[in-house]
Amino acid sequence: YSLSKGKGNKVSAEKVAKITTVNGPSDEVYPTVYTGKVVRPLRSLDPQQAEYQGLIEITEEGTKRGEVYPFAIISLANKTDCLQKGEAIKFQLCTVALTGQKLAYDATPLQRGTVDCVKDQFGFINYEVGDGKKLFFRVNEVLDGVELQPGDEVAFSVILNQCTGKCSACNVFRVSEGVRPVAAPRPDRLVHRLKSITLDDASAPKLVVLRQPKGRDNTKGFTAERKIRQAGVID
């Protein structure tokens, strides 16, 4: 390529010609698919950023959890995707033969939706798939052990069960918390009533026994001897 200066005295490349292919047949691509999040976007999204490459951190449980790998435009499965900071993605790793650098490969943003409900060990996400508008997920598929609540925004991958033919969500990652319901305040009449109640025994209302319990023959109850009866026999 050749360099030229345009408006604002910025240097740009012209007449760019490809010399070698990256992520080509000579690059070693590892089969393992990881779940991670973008910790630094590409410079194309943040012109103030000094580094050109972005960074992806592995978030799923395992020996590589917390490891960070660079990515570039060539790392994207769809070159038009604009990966934002904090966005959940799935990706593979590859070693570039030309430089020996380990780079993210085939990076794809995860699907997004909101949690509809959570019941015991499973829940549902508002996401249109197949004939339904709810996507099933298991609690053990939620990353970082987060307890999801209805309304939380989550990112996830969709997998198809070959036996049942139904889809479900895996690698569920909470992107943001939903609005939590706020308990309604007590009515003013109840608040005033509670304030007027005192726990002082002297001023508390008292109950006075007016008469002792008596039977129809003016005798105390539970004095008559009970007869032993057989089931189904009427005297």
UniProtKB/TrEMBL annotation:
Residues 110-174 form the CSD domain. GO terms for cellular component: cytoplasmic stress granule; P-body. It is found in: Cytoplasm, P-body; Cytoplasm, Stress granule. Residues 185-226 form the SUZ-C domain. One of its GO terms (molecular function) is RNA binding. The keyword Cell membrane does not apply. Keywords: Cytoplasm, Phosphoprotein, Repeat, RNA-binding. PROSITE patterns: CSD_2 (PS51857), SUZ_C (PS51938). It holds the Pfam family SUZ-C. RNA-binding protein involved in translationally coupled mRNA turnover. Implicated with other RNA-binding proteins in the cytoplasmic deadenylation/translational and decay interplay of the FOS mRNA mediated by the major coding-region determinant of instability (mCRD) domain. Required for efficient formation of stress granules. PANTHER family: COLD SHOCK DOMAIN-CONTAINING PROTEIN E1, UNR PROTEIN N-RAS UPSTREAM GENE PROTEIN. Component of a multi subunit autoregulatory ribonucleoprotein complex (ARC), at least composed of IGF2BP1, PABPC1 and CSDE1. Interacts with STRAP. Part of a complex associated with the FOS mCRD domain and consisting of PABPC1, PAIP1, HNRPD and SYNCRIP. The interaction with PABPC1 is direct and RNA-independent. Interacts with EIF4ENIF1/4E-T. Belongs to the UNR family. This is Cold shock domain-containing protein E1. It comes from Scyliorhinus torazame (Cloudy catshark). The lineage of its organism: Eukaryota, Metazoa, Chordata, Craniata, Vertebrata.
